[in-house]
Amino acid sequence: MLIIDKIKKYDSLSDSEQKIAEFLISLGERMEGKSTRWIAEKTFSSPATIIRLCKKLGFSGFDSFKVQYIKELKYIEKQYGKINVNFPFEKNDSMMSVSNKIGSLYHDTIDDTLSLLSHDDTAQAKRMICDANAIYLYSFGTALNQAESFKEKMMKIGKRVFLSSNLNYQLYEASCMKENDLAIIISYSGETENALKIADICKQNAVSILSITSVGENSLSTQSDAILYISSKENLLHNIADYSIHVSVNLLLDILYSLVFQEDFDSHLQHKQYYTGILENKRKSSNSLLFETDETL
Fold it and tell me: Do the domain assignments include residue 120?
């Protein structure tokens, strides 16, 4: 849930807190540089009441609330790129117009996803994967395809990665995970029933959770040890297809795979070349761009 939604829907605020909440919403990005004392004067309240409100909303104090709220507002402001991600083309568009619009949508999604990446969160996610004894992927719906591709890449460099498309099996697998395993849970809304059940099981068994989910606090993100954010411009139901979600998830998983590969580059390259040479030696092509011989390496 976005902070602004949380403020609007919080139903147990005192009259004074409600007045402060409404004032904070009206301030928007102009809140930057403002202090609790300044806001208290404007709302005829006290700094203590402002801090109490921020804590009710899940923050340690006003400063942490302000940083996250302004960050969220700035993200919402740039919500729409050159293309509407939900309806990127119209029924009378030409074939090449549709093609170019989908290409622009991909560009916008990639830029947006990269803008949401932070160094510390990415480094933490990489370290969790590198240190895990085994990695269990949990994905739901059409994002399973991206998860399956990530699993294949990781297995080719010798990583133990497990993924089941059966929702009941996923719950059983989660209950079998050990403390030094890692759960990667992919859920755009962060409210998928099975995702939350799996997160609960992981927490009970002291298993670390890396979530890949949308911007804004949701039930999954509150249970996660690390979070990477999916480009969050696409409506869950009102769209032509899950274009943006798929591109964003795929990009994040490819980034994670690449960072893990880089951690032990020579060893991983040797492992991949050795096993693909054995297991995929039937793949052939006369096109030198697709199939390099030893002489062209």
Answer: yes
